Amino acid sequence: MTVGIIIGIVVVVLILWLISMYNNFVKLRNLCDNAWAQIDVQLQRRIDLIPNLVETVKGYASHESGTFQAVTEARAAVANAKTPEEKMAADNALTGTLKTLFAVAEAYPELKANTNFQELQTELSNTEDKISYMRQSFNDVVMKYNNALQVFPANIFAGMFGFQPRQSFDAVAGAETAPKVQF
């Protein structure tokens, strides 16, 4: 009788522990999804700002059509990307083309003095700051989630429950090199 009660208690405790572990995985996965959604919102904000910025620069530098085309294509790639991994890659490409666009703008002092351009540049800069913050937040949550999946004994059950590790948002290739600034 007492052996049966002890076995029953152990089974109940084990079941409660598994439920708790599963619920923790779900919560962390949902935090990852939410953190990605926040990045997605800021990426959408940025791609909404870009056409206005491009049109403003076009008015001053219409002969830079290759740059405008590259920005437009990179913007479309971000908008059309389906998975977080595709969006990460497309966003990195867009960041590079935006640098080129701003390099073009640097050659036109009257453009840099244009109020509309300055406001758009400020909005884009603020959005870039938000994207950077959201990337950090996303990577922190992904690290917590991946750690929860990989520690023993949770790693044994994570695969059985169908939980897979997530990829963090990596820096753009070459980001470790400081840009050269000349006055």
From TrEMBL:
Keyword Cytoplasm: no
Signal peptide: none
Membrane-spanning residues: 6-25
Record's bilayer topology term: Single-pass membrane protein
InterPro entries to which the protein is assigned, alphabetical: LemA-like_dom_sf, MamQ_LemA
Keywords, comma-separated and alphabetical: Membrane, Transmembrane, Transmembrane helix
Protein name (Swiss-Prot/TrEMBL): LemA family protein
